[in-house]
Structure formats: C-alpha cells, structure tokens
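Q: Can someone sanity-check these two? First one:
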Amino acid sequence: MIICGYFFLPRIMVGMITDYDPYTFEVVFSDKLLMEEYGINENRRPEDYGFSSRELGFESIDGTKLNGWYIPAQKPSGTCLMFIHGRTSNRLKPLKYLALADSLDLDSTYNIFIPDLRNSGKSQEATTYMGYKFAEDVVASMLLMHDEYHQDQFLLYGFSMGAMAILNVIARDDLKSIYQNRIAIEKIIFDSPLVHVKKTLKDQTGNIFMANYFFDEVFDLYSNRINGFGEKMTLSHLLDPEIPTLILQSKNDSTTKADILESELGNLKNCEHLHVHYFDGPGHVKIFQDESTKMEYVHRVSTFVR
C-alpha cells in the first residue's frame, strides 16, 4: 500500500498542477463572489464600455478550439493590443481594462483582441500546463489578427499565468519559428505576473500533506509532459531584454509574490528596457480595481505606452 501511494501520489499532484475546472461564462455569472473577484458589474461585454466588437472562433496551434472578442481601432491600424488572462479565469476578467484603454484613447491607434484561452470562457476544455499551452493559444491569436485583420505589431498585456504564456511566446523556438517572419512584439505589460513556475508551485503547495516530500518528483513529471521545459519557466530565462516591458506588482500579492519577482529581477542582465513598479495594498490582479492604486496604475501604463 505504501509503495502504491508513493507511485500514485506524485501523479495525482501533477494533476492538481495541470488540471482545473474550466471557468465558463455561466460559472462566473452564477457566482456573486466570482463576479466581485472579476470586477464585473453591469458591464459584461465590450459594447457595455462603448466599443463595437466581433466575436471570433478560431483554432490554436494544436487544433484546440478558441474564442475571443475583436475590437477594431477607430482608424485603420496595423497594431494590436491583446489582453491575456490567467489561470482560473477567462476574457471576462480583463474586460474591465477596456475602461483603461478608453481613458487613454488607445482604441484610436490599437485594434484590441481579448481571447478566451484554452479551458476558459467559451473555448475548449484542455490542459494548460501553467502557461505552456496557453502560449500556443496566444500565438494562434496573433496569427489570426495578422491573417484576417493585417496586424503585424503587438502590445501584449498579460495577467498572472497569462504573463508566463507571453514569456513562452517570446522564448520558445518552436513558437518563434511559426510567427517571427510575419509579426513582431512591440511592447509587453505584465500585471501580477507568474515569473517562476517552480518556486511559485512550491510556495503554494507548502500546506498540502507531504507536498514538499514529493515536490521534486512531481515537478519532474510535470516538466516531462512539456518537453522538459519546466526548469526554464522563469522570467530571467525567458524575457527578451530588447522588448520594452513594464511589470506592475503588488507588494501584498499572496499568489504571485513580490519576493519571487525580486529574486528573478536579480538574475536579469541588460535590462534597460525593463520598467518595474510596486504598489502597496491590493492583492493578486487587483491593482487596477483598487481605488487607492488605480490612478497610479493608469499613469504608469499611460507613460509606458506613450
């Protein structure tokens, strides 16, 4: 029995890392606490923020069916602002950032795309692997914008695990070979980013019975499922120092912790295009929602984008 437990428990724990119930629109709209968490009130679609949108269906690199909102710019433009949601989320959560785009008049120069990545919203159920497979959905989203709407420059705006997806997009050779001759990433914004998968998982599984005992084996099993890429899932390994990047981080974030970000920043070199700003008070992906930090947040984004 002990031997069986030793064999199966790590595999069960890998499932805890990689698998979670999809957060559909129905799940969010039926849960008052989730509605509050997502910052949703009466505004539930781009039109509620004064934008005209098109709902698009498309496929990821591996054929997973995806969905998203496309909002064309006021004037013809070859640039696209893409909001990338995180784990246990969907495109409803970054929807409120349309208010930010409106206040900064970004829609006059940027087309906007807000996709549901796999296992989210109206997209197909599938394993995300802590952003590894999300990255393929982001690339597919960019290619859709390029092929159908002639977008060749992108501002990628990622939240939590969405940030790790973007880091994979810019660093994985298998993905760069698909898009790099057609499109370019102009700038990146990370809000409450997942910057080190292994450290974050170890931190968050610390209270699970026997988690630390099995952790290295669990992480190796997880990494083997993504072509041995697990140890590379860090900001310091994946970030392209030539792409202007803004990181917005709460000091009190208990999910993607500031000290893990600090450690990763210490491992970076040649970071003249990297801008980092810390906020006091709000929790995970709450900086824009919190009235005490909202004004400063908007200012930082405005300065970076301009």
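And here is the second, same format, sequence then tokens:
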Amino acid sequence: MMPANMPLAADHHHASAARAQHFYKAYGLTIASQIELPELEPSEPASVDVLITVGPIDLPKPSPETGTAFRFEARQQYLAWQTVGAFLITDACRIEVEPAPDVDDALLAFPLLGPVMALLLHQRGLLILHASAIAVGGKSAVFMGDKGAGKSTTASAMIRAGHRLLTDDVVALDLADRPMIVPGFPQLKLAADAAAAIPLGQAEIRPQVHAAIDKMQHRLHGGFSADAVPATRIYILERGDKASITPLPSISALPAIIKFSYVTRFGRSALVGDFTKTHLRQCAALASQIGVCRLEVPTGLDRIGEAVALIEADLAADDRGAVS
C-alpha cells in the first residue's frame, strides 16, 4: 500500500492537474483515478493503493505497422495501443495513462480494467486468470476457456439463477493461505445474442464505446459479491452435445491453469526475473488445491440452464472443495 501522504494528483503535467480525482474500490484496493471508471464501485477518499494519472509518457509509441508496443521490467511495465493510448505501470501502485488523440475515458477503460489492471495485480503477487468467477453460497465457480467458449455467458446464466458475480475477465486469486478469489467489480461483457437470451433485470447496459468492440458492458446493480470467496472449482468450458463435467487429472490441470493465466497472453517476456518461478509455483499450488474440471456446455443458448443445474449439483456435492 502507498503511504497515506502520497499525493493524489500528478503534478508533472498541466493536463493531469486539470482532471478531477475519482475514488473507487476494486480487487480489495482503493483506487484514485483521473480517468472516470463508472464500471467500478465508488469509494470515499482514503489512503490510496493504486494511483491512476493522465499525462505524457516518455517511451516509444507503437508504429502504424505494429499497432502495439510492450515493455516488461521488474519495476515497470509498459503497454501501448496506437488507437487507444499508452499505459505505464510503476511499482505495482501507479498507472500513468497517455490517451491517443480524441480517445475518451470510456475507451481507455477497456485496456485499463483488462490487461493493464491484470498486470498490476500480477505484480502485487496475485495469480491472475483470464476467466469469469461466480460466488455460489460460500463456494465459487471459475470459468476458463478459449475465446468464444462462453465464460461470461455461463456466468450470466449463473447470476440469472440467483448467484453472484465475483469478477469477469480478470480473476485475481490470493494464494497467501487457502486460495481466495478477490472480488473485482460488478460488470459483465456480453454479446448481444447472449444478453437477449439471458436478460439480467438488475443490469444497466452501457453505451457501446467503439464499433470494433462487439460485446456490450452490463453494469450490475445487485447480483455482485463484494466479499472474497474461497476458490472451489475451476471449469474449462467446451461445447458439447449435452452438459457434462469431467474431473481433470492433476497432470492436465496444471497446463490448463498456465494456459489461461492472464500473464501468458504476453508471452515469456512478461515474466521478468523471479516471476517465472513464482508464476509456476502459484499455478501448481492452485492445481493441487482446487478441483479442475472439463465442463461441456450444450450448443444453443436455450440449453444453458442444463449447465447451470450441473454446476450447482457439482458444488453442492463437494463440501471440501476437492474433486471426489
């Protein structure tokens, strides 16, 4: 945590000073941000864990040919997208943002609350999965899978069935004691067909921020768990003829967790110094303590309820959080 007397606004650039400071809560952190992030839960001003400022970043910008520029060091991580902006993470507690021309806060929030926040949380010692997570009573279900597998859709169906969202897209696990899922913020990203088939009455659909982004943001007003929940089961989603759950042996569970860990999206270059060993140790610890299963979800949104019922029965039958 940053010291309580840490300045809450960057003073290195006049554009930064002109922006108002907003306070939020997410992933157990108090965030002070000069970028508006209505996706997050508002917070009263307090001692700040993460400071987000806007201003120039003196690092090479992406070329039109590459479109992106990434740099990973022990104390700093730099991510830049030509059409959105540049983001510099320092000491796992500060994010500097330089928007691309004519880019507004709503578009900046997409990478900021996705890969940028994931890397910051990773630097803070958490294991980050590219997944969705739902609280089911005192237990939890984590949904991993390839793009289009239906992670957010399955999470939405679970919320519709009366369960609570823990986090979507970026799942942060604290492995200090027993694995715990740290709650993110109350938003799901859903494709139009999934949103139409599984309407969430307590959700506000936010305006589309860019024509190239096909999923809509659904801001929940209810149906969110603000408390950390023990990690109980990880489900790797695949399409199938009928809903089924198959426990994976540990020899298959570890590679699956590594594959869907968020940092692997950036390749080995993101695992600087001792982080390679730390990351492998974290993935192995999770695989050894949490049941990992293959979940076949029937094709067709009208049958998603079959998968929900199977998940509920699976978690109810497992009081110890281990595959029987």
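A (reply): Looked at the second one. The first strand starts at residue 22 and ends at 26. The CA atoms of residues 113 and 170 lie 8 Å apart.
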